[in-house]
User: What shape does this take?
Amino acid sequence: MKKIFFYSLLLLILAILAIPSVSADIIPEDSHYLNRCIKYVNLDSFPDVVLIGYTVGPMIKNYEAYQISNNKCLTKGYKFNTLDVYWTTKTKFDSMNIDDLNLVDLNLLTENIGCYGGYIMNSSPLIKEDIELSIAGFSGEKLVVYTSKRTSEYNNGDPKKTETFANPLLITNFIEQEKKLLTQIDSKLSERVRGKILLQVEQNGEGWYVNPDNQKRYYLGRPNDAFRIMKELGLGVSNKDFDSFGGYAPKRLSGKILLKVEDKGEAFYVNPDDLKMHYLGRPADAFNLMKSLGLGISNTNIRKIDIN
Assistant: This one.
């Protein structure tokens, strides 16, 4: 009798524990699964740095941890677990016991990484996403990591999309270097090129946008960086006003970026030369358009225009 009671109780406990897992695997209404892989891809370039995946969750006593490997998808076990990434030096790591870590001895890098994807609404056609993270380097004593590449696949017939992103420290260093090379600001020159895209032809063709509001130039970097900057500096416009322009903006909007706030924030660049409004579209398209409309300028002249 006692054995029957014991086995019945055990089966009941197991059934209760299984309920969250079963219910969690039910596909939510009007949604589909997103397969996501997040990985670090240049750890070999930083042999003195060790990254540690640190997982906590409802089925974990205390924590679970592992040394993150180069070019391998991050894992966190049970889907409702939380994954944080810490870093330390190899010398310190070699003296640690990964099963008995003290977080005080580690440096937090990234919190709560959603490394699996999970379910998303059917309104989004995204079905697969590969995200590559890279170490940019150190800014003081802080380790800087950034998304260097994102590859997306869709279920609506759209082609696979690959986006690459520049090392933020290289961009910062380039801008700081250019700031040091500034000469006396030429207000007449700055006024003449306000709203234009300038191409630094004596360097590597780097692109700069001269904000017509403050006549300072903004470094465009790579396509995604340029697109982000243009969006940040954009001016919202209603559909009614936009339609009234008939493809050519009034002179007061010369050189500005117009955002159709009532239409998903679509961006248009107003060419100062003829006031024609050019649709910026995707980052790569926008970048190519801006390059084609760019004005070549010498290092001597561009360094007479202030930098934001």
User: Anything to note?
Assistant: DSSP finds eight helices and 17 strands in the chain.
